[in-house]
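Predict structure. Chain length: 410.
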Amino acid sequence: MERSIRHLAFFEALAEMDETQSDWRATSAGLVVLRLFDAWVDEGRAVVAPDAWGLRAVREAVSLVDANTPVRRILAGIVDAMVDADAVDIPRVAPRLMAYGRALDYDGRWQLAGDVFRTLVQHAHPIEDADLAADANMQLGYCARMMGDFAEADAAYRRAEGVASEAGDVIKLLRARLGDAKVAIDRGNLPYAERKLEDAIGEAKRHALTELWATALHDRAHLAIKRGDFELSIRLGYQALESFNSPAARDRVLNDLAAAFQELGVTSAARDANLVLAATAQEQYVRWTSTINLLELAAIDRCEPVFEQYRRELADAELPPLLQAYYHLYVGRGHQAFGHYGQAAAAFDRAAEIAAQRGLNQVAFEIERSAAALAAAAKVPSAEERPMSEEVRDVARAITRLRERVLAGA
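Prediction complete.
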């Protein structure tokens, strides 16, 4: 957990920014607030005394952040909580630090968000601050997954599970197990993930934890896509969609429903779902995923101008490793479909390089197959709709109605 330089992720991010940018000011303010927090924990209340020079410098840095951004209010709240505390009281400041980490997460800045959550993990007592320790580890595990650091993700989820088990917190225990299953899916260990998910679905149902049951059901639907059982994925996913209240959770389910419909060749339903997500999804990760899927659909439909539009839109995005790999894979397939074989080979090579570096076994198999097809001069087939049950057709119709309703009100 210890890093040679505290908050290295922030220093690296600042080094790549222009000091005149608003993002630089926000990131710089976040760094100095975190360093003030470190000093407060290590040295005591003196560092936030009214006449402390460091406190004045931090407040000035926060004041330079754009006034209309939530981050400015969150950072100011962190500072105020330290100043108002009678003693060093980490649980008093922790909710504001968690809010800052989540704000970074929503913007897709997982390296920075992970740094914030890692800071909390380092200071939270696993027994006295069990809720904080479990939540911070869960968030750290998620950020590490997004960055392809499966070793840190696995360790974070296991710590969260241990803390929750010791505290007797069934909800956090099951959430940690779901995180562990997600890491296994990312690594390609599907049998292990399936066992974990089936157990979690049963436990959530036994304890009448509807929202958690829906989460586990969605993760099982995602696994069904990996297994190639797309109808099962659609049925499970739609059950989860109808059970969720959280808009962000519903976005993630809709994303997987789009993927399953695309695999079935029902491109109209896949496109409807992705258009809704690209326009309305709360999380940056989901918006990126839906745009990557629309890129792939444009290639399948042999619509090169639309393909190029999405390719350029994503080219400079700071995608996490898994999405980078899929982006280059789909760019390669698109170039192959349009007869640009040299560009296709280059894209497959880049996708393979990312997958190898990050241990993304599942996508690596797909890249190998696509590269082999290109080497054999095989054409990319157009999508053909597969036979499906009436239940799945009903879900497709429901998604079309959702698209019509959402885009009409946009």
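Summary: The chain has a mean pLDDT of 92.
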